[in-house]
Amino acid sequence: MKITKKRVVLFLLFIFPLICFLILSTGKNNFTKLPVVTENVIDISAINASKTFKNNVSLVCFLGDNIELNKGGFFNLNEKIYKIFIDYKQFQIIAIYPKDKEVEVATLKKEISAFTNMANWNFLAAEQEEIKILFSSFKTNENLANLYTSKVFLIDKNGNLRGRTNDEDSTIDGKLFGYNMQSVAELNAKLKDDIKVLYYEYYAAFKHKNENKADRKEVGL
Hints:
- This protein is an alpha/beta fold.
- It has helices at 5-26, 67-85, 102-113, 128-136, 184-218, and strands at residues 36-38, 57-62, 91-98, 121-126, 151-155, 161-162, 179-180.
- Helices cover 44% and strands 14% of the residues.
- The protein is globular and about 75 Å long.
């Protein structure tokens, strides 16, 4: 058969998209799941009984002793991540600070709220030892200097720390435990994408569960 320009155009317009659709539709788990880097971190309810990681997608940050010095990262997190995901179900930010920093936190909240609906921001006071114990349960390669780290951490609905195991910028075994709030590029290129992957993972699991229910109903089970 002679390959003509017309046949090539027809292939690109009709046949190729159909092949792509068939490939995509035949796999039920053909997407990449976001790796678990630490299982079963301490639940935030240990610090505040009214809050929990369970059944939520949580971003956790540690404000530290010098909130004024470090606040740029929290503004980045608010602008580049929070405002995008505020309407996603069960999405929350947990910001943990030492109990003697209430005045500084009130100022930070006021500054952020000037541009933002704060409904899913949760500022929780804790004792220094409580903060250290919670952070240590993440089992990261990060340091908590003066109760602060520039990294924000992604916790899934089961209380597991999610991240990356083949991060091209990581110098330790390719593992990425947290995302640098001081880097707009990292928030945009990594954290934003990883949150979307996690939500799609839940969507795919929900869809698969409903398909199984429908199949069981059809066969009378």
